[in-house]
Structures are given as C-alpha cells and as structure tokens.
Write a structure and sequence with these properties.
globular; 119 residues; four-stranded antiparallel beta sheet; seven-stranded mixed beta sheet; mainly beta
Length: 119
Amino acid sequence: QVQLVESGGGLVQAGESLRLSCAASGSTFSTYSIGWYRQAPGKSRELVATISSGGSTTYADSVKGRSTISRDNAKNTVYLQIYSLKREDTAVYFCKAQRIETYRINEYWGQGTQVTVAS
C-alpha cells in the first residue's frame, strides 16, 4: 500500500515557476514509477510527466522543454518543476504511483493540488 500526498500548488503569475511535490509512504516507493497528471475544469485528466523506478523520464508536449520531473528515493518524494507557467497550466495536479507485477498492476493516486496561473 502506498499513500501519496501532493503539495506545492497555489496561485502564481504567468511566467513564474512552481515546484510540486508528491510525498509517498511505504518502503517500496523506489520500485514504483510515478506519473504527474492534471485535470482542468471541464476537461479530462491528462498525463504531464512520468519518471520510472530507474529514473527515465517522459513529458507531454504541452510541458516539454519547460518542466523537470525528478525523484529523491531517500525522501520518498517526486518533484515536478514547471517553468514559464501559462494560464493553460491551470489545473488540479495529481500524482500516481504504479508498479506492474506478474499478475497485477498496483496503482495509487494522491488527492491533488490546485495550480492556478493568473495572467
């Protein structure tokens, strides 16, 4: 069982940067891939960035080149830094932990943190 808590959201001005944190409980955190997702009002949830247990990363085109996902396994935390924020980055940001095992996929979601970008 993994519990996730996101933090770092808030109201920021366009052009500023923000670092979101996803803190996890459990001693097996390092074996999970972590994804950051976001959901804007009236829209479906979309994948923003992922980081594997080995540290490989992927980014959505919407944030590629202006965001960094990283993990600190000693702190059981994954970070998402977004630079040059835009109004369209406004959304609730969620993190998800996933581990694929032989016969099942373990997935856990956090409750989300609101990011609002004002112009």
